[in-house]
Write a structure and sequence with these properties.
Strand content: under 5%
Largest sheet: 2 strands, antiparallel
Shape: elongated
Number of helices: 12
Structural class: mainly alpha
Number of strands: 2
Oligomer: single chain
Order of helices and strands: HHHHEEHHHHHHHH
Helix content: 25-40%
Strand order of the largest sheet: 1-2
């Protein structure tokens, strides 16, 4: 009845369940959920012949829930129960959606992404969680699942995004980003609803967000020494660190005043214990 309304079965995957697990978990105690997950009656054993599964002609065994008690410990099942009772985020609070048709050929369309959340807070969350480090300021540097920008992933696969952000993308370097509270997640969704700031892949981004109001003169000063008092930088508790290792932080140290790196005026600037090698990146081209 949700986003998998069009996820038809194949010989390599079973039918989608008709059980609303959100309601099921809410209506049962932790012990009842544990007992239900561990129940073996009517469940598929490990020795079942899944190679013969066909959704049209031989679906019975394949569509059964596996006998979890054969391969999970009590502790692992309790972890699942804990997830279902306390860690699941209510996606109804993150977006609206409509469906048409019925399983397995129906359609699911999300809308009102982020609802009444704060886009400003969401942008801060995106920055604080270091998302931009890999995906870029506008979310288009590294594609999600190979085809989505960060923004389009949230707008088109909002059902999946909240789980990946909170629990990580298994098998990759993306781990739990620390966004665990519903309000923070809703704010992040609200930010991702902005197609200008977080465009679809291949879209013409125009000037990056904040570019028009930026101060290029201040940027030049920051390129020299971003923690100088003239730039408005707040040292916090790091003044001694920046001052003591200045040339490991100054942009100009690695890229040169001419931005040509080690192919320009810094071609003879050898490294020392107090400064790193000059970059080979040419920032002009």
């Amino acid at each position: 009845a949700g986003a998998y309304i069009s996820r038809s079965p194949r010989t390599t995957r079973p039918n989608v369940s008709s059980v609303n697990l959100k309601e099921h978990a809410a209506e049962h105690t932790p012990q009842e959920l544990f007992d239900d997950i561990m129940r073996s009656s009517g469940r598929r054993n490990l020795d079942a012949d899944l190679a013969s599964y066909d959704p049209d002609t031989n679906s019975t065994v394949g569509d059964q829930m596996p006998n979890v008690s054969e391969f999970m410990t009590d502790e692992q099942v309790w972890d699942l129960v804990k997830f279902l009772k306390e860690e699941v985020l209510d996606t109804d609070e993150l977006y609206d959606f409509t469906t048409s048709g019925s399983y397995p050929t129906g359609s699911w369309t999300p809308s009102n992404i982020g609802k009444d959340g704060s886009a400003a807070n969401g942008n801060s969350t995106y920055a604080d969680a270091n998302c931009a480090f890999c995906h870029g300021a506008d979310g288009t540097e590294i594609m999600v699942d190979g085809s989505f920008s960060v923004g389009s992933f949230f707008r088109m696969k909002g059902n999946e995004a909240q789980h990946k952000v909170k629990f990580g993308q298994l098998g990759t370097q993306m781990l739990n980003l620390g966004v665990t509270e519903l309000d923070d997640m809703r704010d992040l969704y609200k930010a991702m609803a902005d197609e200008t700031m977080y465009p679809d892949p291949g879209a013409d981004p125009g000037d990056p967000p904040g570019f028009e109001g930026a101060d290029g003169i201040n940027g030049g000063q920051m390129f020299d020494k971003f923690w100088a008092s003239e730039t408005g930088w707040d040292f916090g508790a790091n003044e001694d660190h920046f001052s003591g290792f200045a040339d490991f932080y100054r942009c100009k140290q690695c890229h040169g005043w001419d931005l040509l790196g080690n192919a320009g005026a810094y071609i003879s600037r050898s490294p020392r214990t107090t400064r790193p090698n000059v970059s080979s990146v040419n920032l002009i081209v």
